[in-house]
Each structure stands twice: as C-alpha cells, then as structure tokens.
Design goal:
Helix content of chain B: 40-55%
Strand content of chain B: 15-25%
Distance between the termini of chain A: 69 Å
Oligomer: heterodimer
Number of helices of chain B: 7
Distance between the termini of chain B: 104 Å
Number of strands of chain B: 6
Strand order of the largest sheet of chain A: 2-1-3-4-5-11
Shape of chain A: elongated
Largest interface: A-B, 32 and 22 residues
C-alpha cells in the first residue's frame, strides 16, 4: 500500500515537472522574421513590427533580409531551421520561387506565416495574411478614371514580375480602366518596387511619350521615384501620380498636393496578426485560415486627415 | 536452353505489361474538354449568386434607419448589419430606400431619402459599377470556399456586369429629376471613419415608383 502511494506521488511529481518544462518551452521559443528586402521603408516597418510583436509576446526574435534574392532567402531558412527557430514570419521574395523554402520549414515542423505577399502553394504555409491588393486597386482604378476625365495617355509601372501582388494590383486597376477606350496605356514596364528604378524607368518613357497625363505605380516607392522624374522634366503639374502601400513619404506627398492617391495596406496589422498567430500556434491552435485578406483603403486629399504613414491616425 | 527461353519470355511479358499499363492514349479534344469542365466559371457562379441575392434583397435595412442607428450605436449596428471577408475597417451593407430624384449627373443620380432627417442625398451609381460591395454585402459568400483569390475577384466582375446589363439600362432611359424611385443596393462604409453624408449605393434593384 505504502509502495503504491509512493509510486503515485512519484508519477505526479514527474507529470508536474513535465508541465513546467512545457510552459518554459513556450517562453523560450524563437521566432524568425524573414523579409524580402529591407531596402524599402515599408518592409522595414513590416519586419520591425512583426519582430516587436513577437518579442512582446515573449519570444526571442531575429530579422533576416533576403535582399530580393531567393537563394539568400533559402540560406536564411536553412540557418533558421538549423538554429532552432520555432516559427517563421515570412514575407516572400517570389510567389513560386519561395515555395520550396516554405516546404523546407514545414518538413522540419516549423510553421510559416506569410505576411503581405503569398506563395503559390495552398497548403505550404500555415496561414497567409495578405493585403487585398486587387480590391484596393479597383478603387484606385475608379478614382484614376475620374481624375483623368476618362481620357488621356498614361503609363503603368509594375513591381517585381514574380510577385503575385504585382499582378493582383495591375489586374484590379485594369478591370476598371480598360473599360474606357479613350484612356490609352502607352507603356507598361517593371521597376521591381524600387524607387531609383521607378525614376529611371519613367525618365526613359518620358523621352518617347512626353504627352502622358497619368502614371499608375504598383507601390509608393516607385511612385515617389516617378514623381522625382516628373519634377526633373518639369511635368509634375501635368501628370497625375498614383501609388500603392501607404508609405510615410507618399502620405506626405498627397498632403502636399503632389501625388493624387495611394492604397493604404496596413503593414502593422498584417505583421502583428502573423506574430499573434505564431503565439497561438505554440499554445496549441491549429485551425488557421489558409488566407486572410486585409482590406486596403484608398487615401486621397479628401480623407488624408484620417491617415498617417503605414496606418490610420 | 529451354529454361533460358522461358525466362526471357517471362521477362518480355512482364516488360510488355509494364509498358502497356504505363502509357495511355486519349483524344486531345477529350482532355481539353475535361480540363475546361474543371475550370471555375465565374459567369455561371455570378448568375447563381444573383438568383440567391434577389430574395435576400428584401431583408435589406432601410438606409434612414441604418444612418440613425449608426449615429447612436455604431459598433452594434456594424456588428449586426455589415459584412466583410477579412480583417480591416471596410464593411459592406445591403440597404434599401426610396425618395425623389434631386439631380441626374453623368455618373450618378442624387436621391433625397424621404425618411432621412439629415436631408443629405445618397449617390446612386449609374456609371462606376465596380468593386465587391454587392458580392460581400449579402454575406452569402465565404472566401474560404475559393481556392484561388482571382476566381473570387472574377465573381465580382461578373456580378457588376449583370448590374450594368440588366439593372441600369431601363432605369437610365427613364430617369429624370423629380421622379420618385425605390432602390435596393450595397454600400461600403469605413468602420473607423464612417462618412454618412456621402454614401454611394451600387444598385441591385431599381424601380421608378412615381414618374
């Protein structure tokens, strides 16, 4: 009898010790934030917010910059897995090219939560928190048509051609604009979401098409570059510039009456949601929605007072 | 010698069996037809949605009631009446109302709502029929039912085509200032900053009730 009681007590001690160990494990977990680039302030906000939220939830975090290079991104995943990171908050470089990296983490039992950009594999990531780029650009397209009075020549500057957001934005915009035959797109060129390239691309387009009246850019960095090119060419009053992202300098530019509009896509909301999902995953949740769209809001001179860089006031 | 012969025959038979079961021949037209059948048809989906939407339209909230309710209890009104398919402040609501036409513009019609004490007319869109307001306001569809987000967006495109082709032409042909119209439609409101003085309605059902 005495022996039995002793055995039961011993078992209880072992179970309690195990429970304590599990609790300690949750707190000692590590979260990697792998982001496509830190060369654009918008992605810096995304990465830093994700890391800060994960840290606030009690996890050790580190930010990895893929520099828009899938090979480097692959190295980051291998390092993160080998270094014992327990979850990845991920902003992919390429919708197709990044799938292998997500699958690598999945095979190692590391959940991946995509932020802003998606990967083209429905079951690879644990969840994808994505800006509703298409719908945001439908609203921008409608405003573009209104501002252009349904006529005139315009240019479209695309982002990275391997990123789904590039095409979702372009398709949303064209789903409206293409219904107006007097709006003529004279050039469509990629500038890789980069400010300097945006400026160079528009400078060269302006040589061939000095009579354009509108520029639609797939992000704010390219829109700011395009605006610089227009200022240099003395055409900043003639050409209406539209961007997408809700970056701080774009919001200021709309306030100053330079850019016409942008789509606010709330990087902080996406980053914080991803970090919270990772925390919930560690605590046992498994029923995550595969994709969650985050609403994009159009910012113009009419409602600029409601917004600040990267979010609402 | 005989044993070797039978071994080779057996190997040849197995090889023939493997090759036979590894290669299939099908008519190209059949393969194309079956892959087309598997493709999502947004036009058909939108038509089925439209047929389901029309009965739901009768349950839309009166726009004057909605505005009053949003002024007094914004959170509970948004929770009860609006729909959205993700995270964010953009919400969609199915509304109905009636009133005299105040002005007819190139892209919209301004309607004074009889029961609305604010006296601010709503803008009934007649040109810019775009976006997801009608698709999402009903709350009928769920984004998780679609594996591809582009399919989901294309449903909106097709719904908007139905509105342009079937709801607007007769209305636009007969509309003028002073006539009284009844409408059911979808609106978009920003939950954090709802602008109740500038509401645009994307029409679902329109009727001139007093010419």
């Amino acid at each position: 009898m005495k022996n039995n009681i002793r055995t039961i007590l011993l078992l209880l001690v072992v179970i309690a010790a195990g429970a304590c160990k599990n609790g300690a494990n949750t707190k000692s977990k590590k979260v990697a934030v792998i982001v496509s680039t830190l060369n654009n302030p918008w992605f810096v906000v995304l990465a830093e917010t994700a890391a800060a939220k994960a840290k606030e939830l009690g996890y050790e975090t580190k930010i990895f910059d893929s520099q828009n290079n899938t090979a480097l991104e692959s190295d980051h995943f291998e390092n993160a897995i080998a270094s014992g990171y327990n979850a990845v908050l991920f902003n992919p470089t390429d919708a197709d090219g990044s799938v292998a990296n997500v699958l690598k983490a999945k095979a190692a039992g590391v959940p991946v939560f995509c932020m802003d950009r998606e990967v083209n594999a429905p079951d690879a990531a644990t969840s994808q928190i994505l800006a509703d780029s298409y719908t945001g650009c439908v609203a921008l397209g409608k405003y573009f048509v209104e501002k252009m009075n349904k006529k005139g020549k315009y240019v479209e500057i695309l982002g990275l051609v391997g990123d789904n957001n590039t095409w979702n934005r372009s398709k949303g915009f064209h789903s409206v604009v293409d219904m107006y035959p007097n709006l003529q797109m004279v050039a469509q060129q990629s500038a890789d979401f980069d400010r300097n390239k945006g400026m160079e691309v528009l400078e060269s387009i302006l040589q061939a098409h000095p009579d354009i009246e509108g520029v639609f850019c797939g992000n704010d960095a390219m829109a700011m570059g395009a605006y610089q090119a227009l200022v240099a060419a003395g055409k900043s009053k003639q050409v209406k510039v539209f961007g997408f992202d809700g970056a701080e300098d774009a919001i200021q530019s709309i306030k100053d009456g330079n850019m016409v509009a942008t789509g606010m896509q709330f990087p902080k909301v996406m980053a914080e949601t991803a970090a919270i999902f990772a925390d919930e995953y560690f605590k046992g949740r498994r029923d995550f929605p595969k994709k969650i769209p985050v609403a994009v809001e159009m910012v113009t001179s009419k409602n600029i007072a409601d917004y600040t860089g990267y979010g609402k006031k | 010698m005989k044993k070797k012969f039978f071994t080779w025959v057996a190997i040849a038979l197995v090889a023939a069996l493997v090759v036979y079961n590894s290669v299939y021949f099908k008519k190209l037209s059949e393969v194309k037809a079956s892959s087309l059948a598997k493709q999502f048809d947004p036009k058909l989906y939108a038509r089925n949605f439209w047929n389901k939407l029309l009965p739901v339209a009768d349950t839309a909230i009166k726009i004057a009631t909605l505005k009053r309710s949003l002024l007094t209890n914004p959170d509970s009104t948004f929770d009860a009446c609006s729909h959205a398919l993700g995270i964010g402040n953009i919400r969609y609501i199915l509304v109905k109302g009636e009133g005299p036409v105040k002005a007819v513009y190139e892209d919209e019609v301004a309607i004074s709502i009889l029961a609305d004490s604010s006296k601010k007319p709503v803008r009934l869109a007649t040109e810019y029929i775009f976006g997801n307001a009608v698709r999402d306001a009903s709350g009928i569809l769920n984004v998780s039912d679609f594996t591809n987000s582009m399919d989901f967006n294309n449903v909106s495109v097709e719904i908007n085509k139905i509105i342009r082709a079937e709801v607007l032409p007769a209305f636009k042909a007969n509309i003028k200032s002073g006539v009284t119209v009844a409408f059911v439609g979808a609106i978009e409101l920003n939950r954090k900053h709802p602008n109740l003085d500038d509401i645009e309605v994307i029409p679902v059902r329109l009727k001139i009730i007093k010419p």
